[in-house]
Amino acid sequence: MKKGFIFDLDGVIVDTAKYHYLAWKNLANELGFEFTKEQNELFKGVSRKRCLEILLEIGEVEATQEQFDTWMIEKNVDYLKYIENMDASEILPDVPKILDYLKDRNHPIALGSASKNAQPILEKVGLLSYFDVIVDGNNVTKAKPDPEVFLLAAKQLGVNSSDCVVFEDAVAGVQAANSAKMISIGIGDEKVLSDARYNFKDFTEIDTNFIQDLINKN
Ligand code: BG6
Ligand code: MG
C-alpha cells in the first residue's frame, strides 16, 4: 500500500503566517488595540472566523453580526494585498526537495489547509501541479483540531488514514493529524509541537532517507 503525504500550507510550504499577522494587526489597531506576535501563535491553523472571534476577545470588542462579517471581509482584502505579489522565492527552504522526492516515486500528495486562499497561493508560488488533491477551508465544515480536513484528503487520495503522513506547523494541526491516526510531523518549535510523532525545525533538517524510511514502514 502506498503512503499518502499531506501538507499544511501556511507555515509549512510558505511563510504566510507573517501576512496573516499583519492583516490581523491592522484590524486590531483600527479597532483601537494592539495584537502581538505571541498572540498570533493562537491563530495558526485556526479558521478565519475563529481567528476574528479570538481577536475580538483579546480586544474586548463587542460586535454585531454585520460588523463581524464586515471585519472578516476587511481582513481578507488586506491579506490578499500582502499575498498579491508572492512568488517562488517565498517557498520555505527545501520544501521542493521533499515534494520532488515524493513526486519522482509517484507517492500521492495532498494539501490539507484551513485557508480559503490555498489554491491561488499554490499557483502564485508555482507548486500547484505537485498536488493530486487539495482540501482547504472551502471544503470542510469542521476546523482543525477536528481531523475532517485530513480524513477527507486521505479519502480523496485513496489511501488509508493510517498510511498518511502529515506535515504541520500548528498545534491544532498536529492534534488533527493524531486524531486521524496519521503520522504527524511537526515543523517548527519542538516545544510547541510536542504532540507530534516527529519534530523538525524546518525541511532543511529532513533527509530524504527519513522520508524513505517512512515509505518503507508497515
Ligand atoms: C490557516 C492559517 O492555514 O488558514 C490561519 O494558519 C488562517 O492563520 C487560516 O486563519 C484561514 O486562512 P484564510 O486564508 O482562509 O483566511
Ligand atoms: Mg499552518
From TrEMBL:
<feature type="binding site">
    <location>
        <begin position="8"/>
        <end position="10"/>
    </location>
    <ligand>
        <name>substrate</name>
    </ligand>
</feature>
<dbReference type="InterPro" id="IPR023198">
    <property type="entry name" value="PGP-like_dom2"/>
</dbReference>
<feature type="binding site">
    <location>
        <begin position="113"/>
        <end position="117"/>
    </location>
    <ligand>
        <name>substrate</name>
    </ligand>
</feature>
<dbReference type="GO" id="GO:0008801">
    <property type="term" value="F:beta-phosphoglucomutase activity"/>
</dbReference>
<protein>
    <recommendedName>
        <fullName>Beta-phosphoglucomutase</fullName>
        <ecNumber>5.4.2.6</ecNumber>
    </recommendedName>
</protein>
<dbReference type="InterPro" id="IPR036412">
    <property type="entry name" value="HAD-like_sf"/>
</dbReference>
<dbReference type="InterPro" id="IPR010972">
    <property type="entry name" value="Beta-PGM"/>
</dbReference>
<keyword id="KW-0413">Isomerase</keyword>
<feature type="binding site">
    <location>
        <position position="24"/>
    </location>
    <ligand>
        <name>substrate</name>
    </ligand>
</feature>
<feature type="binding site">
    <location>
        <position position="168"/>
    </location>
    <ligand>
        <name>Mg(2+)</name>
    </ligand>
</feature>
<keyword id="KW-0119">Carbohydrate metabolism</keyword>
<keyword id="KW-0597">Phosphoprotein</keyword>
<dbReference type="GO" id="GO:0005975">
    <property type="term" value="P:carbohydrate metabolic process"/>
</dbReference>
<feature type="binding site">
    <location>
        <position position="169"/>
    </location>
    <ligand>
        <name>Mg(2+)</name>
    </ligand>
</feature>
<dbReference type="InterPro" id="IPR006439">
    <property type="entry name" value="HAD-SF_hydro_IA"/>
</dbReference>
<feature type="active site" description="Nucleophile">
    <location>
        <position position="8"/>
    </location>
</feature>
<dbReference type="InterPro" id="IPR023214">
    <property type="entry name" value="HAD_sf"/>
</dbReference>
<dbReference type="GO" id="GO:0000287">
    <property type="term" value="F:magnesium ion binding"/>
</dbReference>
<keyword id="KW-0479">Metal-binding</keyword>
<keyword id="KW-0460">Magnesium</keyword>
<feature type="binding site">
    <location>
        <position position="144"/>
    </location>
    <ligand>
        <name>substrate</name>
    </ligand>
</feature>
<feature type="site" description="Important for catalytic activity and assists the phosphoryl transfer reaction to Asp8 by balancing charge and orienting the reacting groups">
    <location>
        <position position="144"/>
    </location>
</feature>
<feature type="site" description="Important for catalytic activity and assists the phosphoryl transfer reaction to Asp8 by balancing charge and orienting the reacting groups">
    <location>
        <position position="113"/>
    </location>
</feature>
<dbReference type="Pfam" id="PF00702">
    <property type="entry name" value="Hydrolase"/>
</dbReference>
<dbReference type="InterPro" id="IPR051600">
    <property type="entry name" value="Beta-PGM-like"/>
</dbReference>
<feature type="active site" description="Proton donor/acceptor">
    <location>
        <position position="10"/>
    </location>
</feature>
<comment type="similarity">
    <text>Belongs to the HAD-like hydrolase superfamily. CbbY/CbbZ/Gph/YieH family.</text>
</comment>
<feature type="binding site">
    <location>
        <position position="10"/>
    </location>
    <ligand>
        <name>Mg(2+)</name>
    </ligand>
</feature>
<dbReference type="InterPro" id="IPR010976">
    <property type="entry name" value="B-phosphoglucomutase_hydrolase"/>
</dbReference>
<feature type="binding site">
    <location>
        <position position="8"/>
    </location>
    <ligand>
        <name>Mg(2+)</name>
    </ligand>
</feature>
<feature type="binding site">
    <location>
        <position position="75"/>
    </location>
    <ligand>
        <name>substrate</name>
    </ligand>
</feature>
